[in-house]
From TrEMBL:
It comes from the Bacteria. Residues 23-276 form the EAL domain. This is Diguanylate cyclase/phosphodiesterase with PAS/PAC sensor(S). The chain holds residues 560 to 836 of 845 of the full protein.
Length: 277
């Protein structure tokens, strides 16, 4: 059994070693990803359920590196947060998304764009100034821009976060709560934070056609949001049954593979033309 114990130990230490190394490798590549222009944005539409019209688009970051291949954001965003790189990456996302809507405006096919902001970007207190200066620099009207943030952003420094959200909304920038229902915070922040949209997490939408419990939860979230004047977006809609049920429940907007997968800017414009034709 001593032998087994040793094997076990060496197995785990090897795995740990590998994990550390790959994390280290990814971090090393991440440091140079911006200067090497390895990031891009893809876009996924949100539609209004009553009319079917495209009411907005979410920008999602992609990273392609020669050595690592395509690294998913769920993997490198946390790393970017730990290393502080998230601020520069966030600035790039903001600039790129703003430039994209401006191009769409020029082509006469613009929809408001939402960017994701991670909790760490919110914590350093400069997000308001970063967004303001980008709007001033670009001259873009703020109604074309909104932000999506998760409940974790409210955990530290709730007071400052509330002030920042209020300031953003006063300037015309939309604010959405992302992944609603998965965070650890209580409902109290909904009372104190200034918001426009609430996005119901994919995990609830996933099971609404099978689970009565989740269906009731989604129904309650929709009722609560509407009572508070917030619009509700269902994310991760994959089946016509889910879409039908959400429509019945009075959900305002939907997003998901069923409607459209995230696409490059060019492919998104093509999709829009086909969709509205
Ligand atoms: P999120 O903001 O909740 O984005 C939704 C994720 O679900 C996206 O994954 C999207 O591609 C995926 N998705 C959309 N529709 C469906 C569907 O019908 N089914 C399934 N299974 N998935 C669907 P993605 O692009 O891999 O992004 C993962 C997360 O990474 C995002 O979750 C967001 O938290 C973060 N992220 C993405 N882009 C950025 C960014 O520019 N900045 C920051 N800070 N975080 C980002
Ligand atoms: Ca999001
Ligand atoms: Ca989400
Ligand atoms: Ca998410």
């Amino acid at each position: 059994s001593k032998e087994l114990g040793q094997n076990k130990y060496s197995f785990f230490s090897q795995e740990l070693h590998q994990k550390r190394r790959s994390r280290y490798m990814i971090a090393a590549q991440l440091h140079r990803a911006l200067e090497k222009s390895e990031f891009s944005l893809v876009y996924q539409p949100k539609i209004r359920l009553t009319t079917g019209e495209v009411v907005g688009v979410e920008a999602l970051i992609r990273w392609h590196n020669v050595e690592l291949g395509t690294v998913p954001p769920d993997l490198f965003i946390p790393l970017a947060e730990d290393t502080g790189l998230i601020n520069d990456i966030g600035d790039w996302v903001l600039q790129e998304a703003v430039a994209q809507v401006q191009q769409w405006l020029g082509q006469g096919c613009a929809v408001p764009v939402a960017i994701n902001i991670s909790a760490r970007q919110f914590q350093n207190g400069s997000i308001l100034q970063r967004i303001e200066s980008e709007l001033a620099r670009s001259g873009l009207d703020s109604r074309w821009l909104s932000i999506e943030l998760t409940e974790t952003s409210f955990m530290d420094n709730a007071e400052q976060t509330a002030e920042t959200l209020l300031a953003l909304r006063e300037r015309g920038v939309g604010v959405s709560i992302d992944d609603f229902g998965t965070g650890f915070s209580s409902l109290s922040y909904i009372r104190t934070m200034s918001l426009d949209h609430l996005k119901i997490d994919r995990s609830f939408i996933n099971s609404i056609t099978e689970s009565e419990r989740d269906r009731q939860l989604v129904k309650a979230i929709i009722a609560m949001s509407q009572a508070l004047g917030l619009s509700v977006v269902a994310e991760g809609v994959e089946t016509p049954e889910q879409l039908g049920l959400l429509r019945e429940l009075g959900c305002d907007q939907a997003q998901g593979y069923l409607i459209c997968r995230p696409k490059s800017a060019e492919a998104f414009v093509e999709w829009c033309e086909q969709y509205s034709a």
